[in-house]
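Local shape tokens:
==================
===
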Amino acid sequence: ICIKRFKHYTPQLSINGRPNKKLGYKFTLKIQVSVPKFLYGHNLTSVNPNDESLFYQRLKTSCRSLGVELIGSPSEYKVIGFDPAINVFLTNYSTTNDAIRYLYRCYTSKLISLDKRDFRDKGHAIYLHQGKWNFVMYDKVQDLIKPRYKRMDKNQNTKLKDLYEKVTDKEILRLELHGRDQKRLKKVIEKFYPGIEYVKCGDLFNELIWKYMIRDYFIQKILQGNKLALTLNDNAIDWYIRISKRYPNLTDKKIREKLSLVLIAKDPEGLKVYRRMYEKRHSQRQWYNMAKEIKELQSLAISDDYFSFIHDIDKALWYKDCLDIF
């Protein structure tokens, strides 16, 4: 059941039936809902954990209007998919298009598929695909006024369009993590609620969980191998001094060799070409040793080197005892 005649946002309901030995036939109700849209009419702000009881109350009322009576507390319902997201408001004259352009240049593992979606106007987007998880980054402001078939967010209502007038002068980078891997999701939730039998709806009303999942993915899949590529510092002498201080026992020749690797790592496209050329002349195993050395040099980058939008992402995803981006 997917009701579209309502002008306001409503949950999408579907019923699946499967043969069952005890019951003969077992029916399962699946509810797909965007909590911020359902509560506030838009997803430009994060969910307030204090609104958990209000969400359950409205969910029961909304499902009843669709002809479905929910039994029991929705907080105990099993979660089969969770898509955490956050809006990053960029500062210091950073633009969303610049952020997406630099992030798209990042060097990623061959196990990750990296795609970019361009438009003639503003509002570009990046997709990272790996297994059952997708990570999406796009321009939220421009997405509000695109035709439905071009939008990243297909379920926008009239309220979101009205909001464009209020945020048209803002630069908002939207980060979304989409996953249907229940085992991995349970593993994450167990870090916060040890010993759970399964992931319940009530477990997800915790801001730390959303930030942890997005921050961990961003650091592990994007930033970890691209710290040098996301820095503004192009001063070769400065990098030479840092290398000589980090490795005081190296000869000048060895320092220059490491400096050349730093400059290559600052250009992800150049690094991809360098890898292809290196693997033609040497074995793939030797490249792994070279990649290990480049990974070690990534730690030379310091907080002041990074683009401003990296600091904005760090601030938006910050929480106490979080994994440090820098």
Remarks:
- The longest strand covers residues 12-20.
- The beta strands are 12-20, 24-32, 85-89, 113-117, 125-130, 133-139, 172-179.
